[in-house]
C-alpha cells in the first residue's frame, strides 16, 4: 500500500556526525537536536549506518521543508552556545566542525536526497502513530508511503482495515524512493512494526 510524499533536495538536507555508535544513541541525538534547533514542521530526520575503515556507527540527516528553513537551522546549529566539540555537519558545500566528522556526514545527505537509505525517526505524522491504528489510517495520517509485510507473498496486499500495534515506536526507512515501513504479523490477526523499541526506550518523553 502506498501514499505520496515529497522530500527536498541537497540544499535542504543537513548531515550530522556526532560520533554516535548505536541506533539508540542516534535517536537520542535526533531528539536533542530537534529540541535545540527548533526544527520546523515537515522536517524528516533519519539515522544512517556508517561502515568504513575509520568509523563504525551512525550519522543523522535532517531534510528541511525548503532551502530557507535549512539556512535558518544551519545558522542555529553552527551557533550553538554549548556545541559538541566532535560534531561535524554538512549542508551543500558548507562544512562545520572537525573535517573527518563532516566528511562522514556527507553520505547521509546523499542517501537522504536520493531517498535510497535512512531510517526515519522524525517525519510528518510520527507523533500520531501511537497505540493501535488501522493500516489505512497509518498511511493517511503520516508521511509513510508504503508498507511491506515481512514473509508475506510478494504481491500480497494487506487489508487496509488491519490493526497495527505501533508500540509507540514506528521507524520507516527510505527504500527505492519511498518511505517504507516493514511490518510483521502479530497476535490476533494484527500487524506490528518489524523494529521493536528497546526494553528501556530512549527519549521516552519524545516517543
Distance between the termini: 25 Å
Low-confidence stretches: 1-7, 203-207
Task: Quote the average pLDDT.
Answer: 90
- Choose one word for the global shape: elongated
Q: Mind telling me the C-alpha Rg? A: 17 Å
N-to-C series of helices and strands: EHEEHEEHEEHEEEEE
Q: Number of helical runs?
A: 4
> Structural class, judged by helices and strands?
alpha+beta
The main pleated sheet reads as:
6 strands, antiparallel
Please bin the fraction of helical residues: 10-25%
- Count of distinct strands: 12
Strand order of the largest sheet: 5-4-1-3-2-6
Strand content: 25-35%
How would you characterize the overall build of this protein?
Helices cover 24% and strands 27% of the residues. The protein is an alpha+beta fold. The strands form three sheets. It has a six-stranded antiparallel beta sheet with strand order 5-4-1-3-2-6. Strands 8, 10, 11 and 12 form a four-stranded mixed beta sheet that branches. Strands 7-9 form a two-stranded antiparallel ribbon. The protein is elongated, with a radius of gyration of 17 Å. The N terminus and C terminus are likely disordered.
Write a brief structural summary.
This protein has 207 residues and is of the alpha+beta class. The chain is built from 4 helices and 12 strands; from the N terminus they run βαββαββαββαβββββ.
